[in-house]
Amino acid sequence: MNKTLFISDLHLSAEREDIAQCFFTFMNNEAIHADALYILGDLFEVWIGDDNKTEFSNAVANAIAKVGAKLPVYFIHGNRDFAVGKRFAEQAKMTLLPEQHVIDLYGTPVLISHGDELCTRDLDYMRFRRKARGWWWPKLMLSLPLSLRKRIANKGRETSQNNQKNLSAEIMDVTPEEVYKAMRKFKVLHFIHGHTHRPDIHHFNLDGKEATRIVLGDWYTQGSILEASKNGINLVNRSFSQ
User: Fold this and answer.
1) Helices (H), 93-203
2) pLDDT, tens only, 16-64
3) Which terminal residue of the chain has fewer beta carbons within 10 Å of its beta carbon, N or C?
4) Number of folded domains in the chain?
5) What is the CATH number of the domain that holds 181?
6) Residue 28, helix vs strand vs coil
7) Contact 228, 191 (CB under 8 A)
8) Element containing residue 126 per DSSP (H, E)
9) Is residue 98 situated within a structural domain?
10) In terms of Cα–Cα distance, which of 214, 44, 233 is closest to 113?
């Protein structure tokens, strides 16, 4: 059966060999046989620029490129890897997509995104997001030496982790009205995103019609994959021991 695969929130890093090995196994054994692969953000734990080439980043790029040589691979930026640029995308043979994008999934129009833009109740993060996704701040950051960027990124991760400890689950989840607004804007009844680390398939009513929102899971303790085919959708997990 032909399948299209969706993943997000892997948070890959050289320090988490278990996640990395699960990713490489998935790419070699499953993704390589798909119709298409969509990576919906936060592929990396942190990305400070395409010029920060390491043995690990090259291994990830090569694994994606191996798949990209056989089928389309698409990437939407997440809040951890919004600095992924054309250089890395070309190395990995993947196509960069805008932050919200509609695809034809076996005849059904589906909106896809990372999902962080939907969490509007987290006011501090939304202020940072507006800055980080603007035109001047990324250029400024990328003009800094790599060593300084690493220190800034590490400090930002530490601050973010501390801030999240004080946030309620409701604030860190999507704002329902933002979901409805996006789906109305693109005139779709199906939405796939990640970011919240709360894998689920939500069914709800949107303007009198049955709608669906699929949330991808993170890869902190297992691989989380959405399989889509002409026969439907299925959220599946892959053990780190496989």
Assistant:
1) 123-132, 136-142, 146-164, 169-172, 176-186
2) 999 999 999 999 999 999 999 999 999 999 999 999 999 999 999 999 9
3) N
4) 1
5) 3.60.21.10
6) helix
7) no
8) helix 123-132
9) yes
10) 214
Residues in the chain, overall count:
242
Instruction: Tell me which residue range forms the domain holding 79.
Output: 4-121+170-238
> Which residue matches tokens 């993060």?
125
**Count of alpha carbons within 13 angstroms of residue 202, beta-carbon side:** 17
pLDDT digits (tens, 9 = 90+) for 104-156: 999 999 999 999 999 999 998 899 899 888 888 888 888 999 889 988 888 77
Pairing of strands 95-96, 108-113: unpaired
Place of tokens 């499953």: 30
d(CA 110, CA 218): 21
Predicted structure pTM score:
0.93
Coil, helix or strand at residue 89: helix
Do 42 and 79 form a contact (C-beta atoms < 8 A)?
Answer: yes
Q: Does residue 234 belong to any structural domain of this protein?
A: yes
Domain assignment present for residue 134? The answer is: no
